């Protein structure tokens, strides 16, 4: 649960201050008095703790639902908690291609937006994954096939191979797939949208 402790002169202002500092709606914050500062018997200030009262994963679900409702799209959203640090949302709509976008760019932007919203409400940074129409699962299979095929060629020829630019999520899939290979290693090179993976032969 995300918390914030601070000193304030008026309890009436505590909720407004906490909402501004946490950047969270006041309805999801609870204020508790931890201590008081007094002078000659009069309370001069309060030490209070503001606690977020809502599950960050549920906020992600609610935000996605509102997003699709505003777009007038009928969407089925399935939320899964893989562990304490990771939550995923699987979505299906009548407009999956539109929401995925070219090369998954629109989907990537939706995930970025939801990740930022969810982590506003979380004390620890959460891994947030959003998939639409199984696009990422299919993309993962394609990338793993590409990784295996390219790695075999690199291991055979002893010549490194540079893959096309990919986002961090896609690069991580290939890194993970080849992490236990004895004959090749992977390294990311380049900056920004040009960042790509290079599969290199290991020295024998």
How is the secondary structure organized here?
Layout: E1 3-8, H1 11-22, E2 29-39, E3 42-52, H2 56-70, E4 75-83, E5 86-93, H3 96-100, H4 105-120, E6 127-132, H5 135-157, E7 161-162, H6 168-178, E8 184-189, E9 196-201
Parallel strand pairs: 5-6
Antiparallel strand pairs: 1-3, 2-3, 4-5, 7-9, 8-9
Helix pairs in contact: 2-4, 5-6
Report on the structure:
This protein is an alpha+beta fold and 204 residues long. The protein folds into three domains: 3-52; 56-133, 2-Layer Sandwich (GMP Synthetase, Chain A, domain 3); 137-201, Ribosomal Protein S8, Chain: A, domain 1 (2-Layer Sandwich). The protein is 40% helix and 32% strand. The chain has a three-stranded antiparallel sheet with strand order 1-3-2, covered by helices on one side. Strand 2 (29-39) and strand 3 (42-52) form a beta hairpin. Helix 2 packs across helix 4 (105-120) and helix 5 packs across helix 6. It is elongated. The chain starts with a strand and ends with a strand.
